[in-house]
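Dear support,

I submitted the protein below through the web form. The confirmation email said the job was done, but the results page showed an empty box. After a refresh the structure appeared. I'm attaching both so you can tell me whether what I see now is the final result or a partial one.
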Amino acid sequence: MVLLLCAMVGLINGMLVGYLRLRAFLTTLATLIVLRAIVDELVLNYARVVSSSISSSALWESMWDAKILGIPLAFAFAIVMAILCHLMLSRLRIGWHILAVGGSRRSAHNAGIPVRRVVCTTYVMSAVLAGMGGVLYAARLNSTGSDTGAGLEVMVLTAAVLGGISLGGGRGSSLKAMLGAFIVLIVINSLIRLDMPSGSTPLALGLILLVGVAVDIRWTKNRHKLMSRVYVSPTYLSLPTCPSTEPGSASPYALNDRLREVDAIGLEELDGPEDMILDSAGNLYTGSRHGDIIRFLAPDHRTSEVFAHIGGFPLGLAFDREDSLHACVAGMGLYKVTQNREVIKLSDQTNRSLFSIIDDSRIRLADDLDIASDGRVFFSEATMRYEVQDWVVDALECRSNGRILCYDPRTGSTRTVLSKLIFPNGICMALDGESLLFAETWACTIKRFWFGGAKKGRVEVVVSDLPGYPDNLNRASDGSFWCALAGMRSPVFDLTQRRPDFRKKMARLIAADEWIFPNVNTGCVIRFDLEGKVLESFWDLGGESHAQITSMREHQGYLYLGGINNNRIGKYRLRDADPKWTSQDSYWGMSAGGQK
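What the results page shows now:
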C-alpha cells in the first residue's frame, strides 16, 4: 500500500510537471506541504488507535533484522537497486531518454523523444524508490511517526551534489550517487563521534550543500571559460604561401562549379554523414550523428535501413577481406560490424607513452582508418586533448596533439606507430602495401608513412601547400588518390597561426563564439598522385549541395561525397573513370557481385 500510495503521489507530480509543465521545484514543494499536512491530520486522529494496537508481522521484523550473506537487508537492497539503475541508465532506452531529457528537453523533443511521458514516468519511479526507502528506514527504527524521515531530503540532495550529479540534469550515475551517500554518512558519523551538538549535523550538511550547489552551477556555466584560460595552449605554426585558386587560371585549384549539380542520396534523412563506403554488393553505408550506421540498398540507394547502432558518432569507415565494416567512433574507439550486424569493440586504448606525465592510453577521437593487406588496421586519432564536441578548439592550438595507431587482429592489441602530428585525419593505403598516406589538417599537408619494407618508419611530405584543410583520403581508379578539403585557408587565420600570444589572449578574454576559427564551410575535392602533383579539383561554390566535404569515395564511375555537417550524400558522375572499378576490388580483388 505504501508503494502504491507513493506511485500515486509520483504520478500526480509527474502529471503536473510533465504534462502541465509546471515548475518542478515549486510543484514538489507544494505537494510536500500538502502531504505533510495530511500525515499530521492522520496522526492527530488515529495516533491513539495505532499506539494502543499490538500486531506482529514476520515480514516487518525480517526487514530490519534479516541479513543476506551477512549484509543487512536494507544495504543489500541499496546495492541491488544501484546496479539496476546503472543498467537502466547505461543500457536501456528509457535510461538514455531520461539522461537526454535531463540534459536538454528541447533537444530531446527535437530528437523525437516523448519528453512529457519520460518526465512523468521518472517521477513515478522516483516516488516508488523513495517509498521503498521509507519502508526500510521505518523497519530499521521499528517505529513510525509524524517526524520519521524528516530532514532526509537534505541528506539526499547533499549526497547527490557531492557525488557529482548535476542539479541541471543530464549528468550523473548510480555509482556517483552511492559515493555521495557514503561521504555524507562519513560526515554524519564523524560529527557524532566528535560529540558535536545535535544541531551541528544539519548545519554541516547545509553548508556542504551550499558549497556544492555553488560549485556545480558555476562550473556548469563557466567550464568552457576555465578551459580556455587554463587548458588552451596555442603554439607557433607557419604555413607555406597559399596557392592561387583564381578561376580560369592555370592553377590546379582554380575555382569551378563542377559539384553544383549532383544527385542527392538520403536527403533530409541523414545527419552528419562524415564518411561513406560501398560493399561488394554495391550497398552504401554511412554514419549518423545519432550513433547509427545507415545502409542504402543497391542499386538505386533509395531504400535505407539502420544497419547497426553503435552509440557514438561513426566517422571513418573501411571494409576488410570478409566484408566486415570497421568504423572509427568518436569518443569510443575502433569498432567492427559483421554482415550479421554483430557490433564488436576492437580497441578503445593504446600503449601509454613511455615518458608521458599523464595517461595518454585512452583513445579520445578516432577519426579515419584503412586496412593493410595483412589485416592490420591503421587509424588516426586526430587529437588526444579534446573530445569530438570541442575538436575545432584543437585548431586554436595548432599543436602536435594527434597520432596514428595500429590495431593488430592477430594479437588484439593496439600500439602507437606515429605520434606528434597536427590533427592527423584521413588514412589511405598506398598500392605498394608498405606505406600509407595521411593528412595533417591544420598543417595543410599530406604525408606518406612507411610501416614496412626498406623504408620502415620513414615519413615523407607528398603535398605541402594545400589551399585548404585536408580531411579523408581514398584511392582513385587510375592509381591516383582523392582528398577532401573540409575548409579553405584564409589570410586572417594563417596570420593568427603565427601569433600564438594573440590566440591565447583571444581564448582568455572573449567568448568562444567570437573566436577566429578556420573556415570549414566550403566544399572541395582534389585528385593527386604520389609525386605530389595535383591533377584536378572539384568545387561547389554556392555551397547549396555540399556546404562542407569531409570525404569522398569512387565507385563504378561515380564519386560519392559526404560531409560531417551535411544532410545528404552526393553522387557525381566521373566522365573518364573506369565504370567497373571498385575499392573492394582494389583492396581485396573482390568484384561488385561479391566474387573474390
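Response: this is the final, complete result; the empty box was a page-load delay. Residues 591-596 have pLDDT under 50 and may be disordered.
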